Amino acid sequence: MKNTELNGYAGQYKDELLNNVIPFWLEHSKDSEYGGYYSCLDRFGNVFDTDKFIWLQGREVWMFSMLYNEMENRQEWLEMAIHGAEFLKQHGRDEKGDWYFSLDRQGNPLVQPYNIFSDCFAAMAFGELYKATKNEEYKKIAVDTYNNIIKRKDNPKGPYNKLYPGTRPLKSFALPMILCNLSLILEDVMGSQKIDEIVPSLIDDIMINFYQKDTGVILENIHPDGSVVDCFEGRLVNPGHTNESMWFLMDLGVRYNDQKLIDKAVEILLHSIEFGWDKEHGGIFYFMDVKGHPQQQLEWDQKLWWVHLETLIALAKGYKLTGNQECKKWFEIMQTYTWDHFKDKEYREWYGYLTRQGQPLLPLKGGKWKGCFHVPRAMFQLYKILSQE
Length: 389
Fold this sequence. Notes:
The chain is mostly helical. The chain has helices at residues 10-28, 54-70, 75-91, 116-133, 136-152, 174-185, 187-190, 192-210, 239-255, 259-276, 305-322, 325-341, 374-387, and strands spanning 40-41, 47-49, 52-53, 102-103, 109-111, 171-172, 221-222, 236-237, 288-289, 303-304, 353-354.
């Protein structure tokens, strides 16, 4: 790290993490009666639904474990992580070891294990908690789950796939993207040899198949052979996914000492922001069509919390690693937009969903998709990045 002009923001992110965001989840999300966490929390932290979504449970276990490991050995953080992990250990998997999508409050399965991201965040959670506790049972869960993900990755939904076989097979960008980050997080648990067997092919898949040189964008879905499919799903671009994945690739560029990968990730990031930026109202669109056709997602023009926070992380990393002035310029723009629109100025935590014009669409602080993850992870990442000389 060599570029320090943005370092003045580091204290802001640390303060927000420790004095606003994490206290909200510590105070409101713990289910002391049945275990696990509530994620459906309104603006004030009141619980409005008690269903428990596995990937949000896993994300929260990971978050408190990671903060314990990387920020400070606070006992309350470790206890919070173990509280969620024990609930997941008892209720989260079927007899084959696949992780359900959701449970009721008591831990009874509600939705079958169709979504492999439940497994990804469970592996991440137990791997990180193992680092904190050295509990071998947690390590085994992480290793078994990771290996199961690798087995399932070419047909992640398995018997729950709704597509008619053979007509229009599609491969999703989300899985190789997540696996890049997950593999790096689990390197201490899985061993470097295992990670080195898997990660290079993930990088190639992203940079050769999903990345389109002619348009400069990353597509969300492609044919398994890497070709483009001209349909709604095949034209879909999610700028937030692109931007988040680019900081994962920058981390891998550091891991493999590959400056070319870092530079290319910065190039793709900056193009993605230009492509996805709403020139009328500011902020980054949720979904776009690579050819400019109407999208099928009715929420395409919403502004989402994670999109902007992940973009800030990527810009900060890009600037620190390359000194690219466009990263600095866009960081300042994104910093202003994100803090002005997503931070709740009166109550703790951040809004998740805005209208295109930038007004809060829902007052919730957590729900089926928003939990204790993107906001605190971004606060931690940005504090860490911007603290470095």
